[in-house]
Design brief:
The chain has 76 residues and is mainly alpha-helical. The protein has a domain at 16-41. Helix content is 49%, strand content 0%. It has helices at 2-12, 17-42.
Length: 76
């Protein structure tokens, strides 16, 4: 009920356009920032992975360093 009383007091308060825009801006920043914090906390950002240097052969296109044998090359 405390939040409802605070919201009612803000809505009942006399304010000019500048104060209204300030209140709306603060509310929007709080919503966006709070949503971003929740998404960041809920997402798996790969923090359990070990870091490695990128280079030749680190991508699927360049092949893998871990997986088995490389295919045999044909003689030219």
């Amino acid at each position: 009920m405390e939040i409802r009383n605070q919201l009612k007091s803000i809505l009942d308060k006399q304010m000019d356009r500048q104060d209204f825009i300030k209140h709306v801006a603060v509310g929007a920043v709080a919503l966006v920032g709070g949503g971003a914090l929740i998404r960041m906390a809920m997402s798996d950002n790969g923090s359990g992975r070990t870091s490695h240097q990128a280079g030749y052969g680190d991508s699927a296109y360049g092949g893998t360093k871990q997986g088995g044998e490389q295919p045999a090359r044909r003689a030219a």
